[in-house]
Automatic annotation (TrEMBL):
Protein name (record): General transcription factor 3C polypeptide 3
GO cellular component labels: transcription factor TFIIIC complex
A Pfam family of this chain: TPR_7
Coiled-coil features, chain-numbered ranges: none
């Protein structure tokens, strides 16, 4: 505890904020952080639930922004992250909300009732003499609008006055009007607890440290709210490097929470800054499906990303999510089937035979949806070849060799124009898979020792003129 001299000084200056701050600084210099914390902490008799009931309590020294800022800096230096967050978070949130709403610290003067009556009278008074006797005066549209607003405000005040009068009479009290028609009233806008929160460099660092602390405590949504408000209100004050740091934190927490409502803009910005980063794109496509839960393309693309990285179990999970939404789509059935077939080659898989059967079931479903097309037959043959079912693979490759597929037009992107040279450069048969099937079939024959059959297949289907 502090010495007797300090105790007596605090007794005389108990509510003096500057005195407590100066004394806390001296204690910190003497490495007495615990005593500084007890000096700046609310008294033990302080009841948080009654703070709004007692106007004197709401103005107590321990609620001062400077006190809380000093206290949170001590917690941060000692690594007490939870106390640090609980102390400064309410002040940061309130200050950012005030900044985001664009509320300025100013005083606005209310109109007196006499001024309101004057505005109404200016429009409603009729001429009593002259040529325009009995007609309304000529007024501008702006004056007419002011008079309309004044009339509504007077009616509202009259109704409120009658309500108070009726309540007082019902309670058996004497009614005394407290009108102050001729007095000017002032309406004060609320001042943020932390002034210049977005402009001061130290407080900018405080916001970043607060977001990191919230992340370490797994309070992601509160951190994302702060990041969103800072990027909205402080983009003109925050340096670019610190904005990038906040966006990186937001993208990371959005990845953890799968909540695109808060962190999608951060992830989108990261992808724009690092377009060749696979990690950035993986994060983008993980969060994007949660933004549009019924949107198939991002789910399928996310599965493709996992396939490229050979994460076949994760790819199968994404493809199955798309299958739930669109079970009769040939491409989705093909993707699920190939992912399960690739998964069977993993060393840790226990039920490989079941996984092969499930993969082939999806490929046969693809065959049905494609009406026994050459490509669907080739895919089944290639899957059987991949897992070592060469007898089945040979039969399907032979079915492919017995068919000839017509060329189909290649889809174009929106607003994409191809010149005639590119279209004429495409050779006939670019949709025909007989050469691919013949080459795979010759590999099977050669591995089995049937060299003559292998050479014959290549001669019949893979010979160029």
């Amino acid at each position: 505890m502090v010495d007797n001299g300090c105790d007596s000084a605090l007794e005389r200056l108990e509510n003096n904020v500057d005195a407590r701050l100066n004394l806390a600084s001296l204690l910190i210099e003497d490495s007495k952080e615990d005593e500084a914390i007890s000096l700046l902490s609310p008294p033990q008799s302080f009841d948080l639930q009654n703070i709004n009931k007692n106007s004197d309590t709401s103005k107590s020294w321990w609620l001062n922004g400077k006190i809380k800022l000093k206290l949170c800096n001590i917690y941060r230096a000692k690594g007490m992250m939870e106390d640090f967050v609980n102390t400064i978070l309410p002040l940061v949130q309130e200050s950012l909300y005030i900044e985001s709403l664009g509320i300025k610290i100013k005083v606005r003067r209310r109109l007196r009732d006499s001024d309101l009556f004057e505005r109404v009278k200016k429009v409603d008074d009729r001429q009593t003499d002259g040529v325009f006797c009995g007609s309304r005066p000529m007024v501008t549209a702006a004056d007419r609008l002011k008079a309309s607003r004044a009339r509504k405000l007077l009616q509202k005040k009259a109704a409120l006055k009658e309500e108070k009068k009726a309540a007082a009479l019902a309670a058996g009290l004497d009614w005394h009007s407290d009108d102050a028609n001729d007095e000017s009233e002032e309406e004060h806008f609320k001042e943020p607890p932390l002034v210049n929160l977005l402009k001061d460099e130290e407080q900018q660092d405080l916001i970043i440290d607060l977001c990191k602390a919230l992340e370490s405590l797994e309070r992601y949504y509160e951190a994302l709210d702060i990041i969103k408000l800072v990027l909205k209100s402080g983009h003109n004050f925050f340096p670019v490097e610190k904005q990038q740091q906040l966006r990186s934190l937001g993208a990371q927490m959005a990845y953890y929470t799968m909540d695109s409502k808060h962190g999608f803009d951060c992830i989108k910005h990261i992808v724009q800054q690092h377009p060749y980063s696979i990690t950035a794109w993986n994060c983008y496509y993980k969060v994007l499906p949660s933004k549009h839960k019924d949107c198939i393309p991002p789910i399928v693309i996310s599965g493709h990303q996992f396939t490229v990285l050979s994460h076949h179990q994760d790819a199968a999970r994404e493809y199955l999510e798309a299958y739930k939404l669109l079970p009769e789509n040939p491409l989705i059935n093909l993707c699920v089937g190939t992912a399960l077939i690739n998964l069977t080659l993993g060393l840790r898989l226990q039920n490989k035979h079941q996984c092969i059967a499930q993969g082939l079931a999806f490929l046969y479903n693809n065959l049905r949806l494609c009406e026994n097309s050459q490509e669907a037959l080739y895919n089944i043959g290639r899957a059987c070849h991949h897992v070592g079912l060469v007898t089945l693979a040979v039969s399907y490759y032979e079915k492919v060799l017995a068919m000839k597929e017509k060329d189909h037009p290649i889809p174009k992107l929106p607003n994409e124009n191809w010149d005639h040279a590119v279209e004429n450069h495409k050779k006939d048969g670019y949709c025909d898979l007989r050469r691919e099937a013949a080459f795979n079939l010759h590999l099977i024959y050669r591995k089995c020792g049937a060299m003559d059959l292998a050479r014959q297949v290549l001669k019949d289907h893979c010979t160029f003129d």
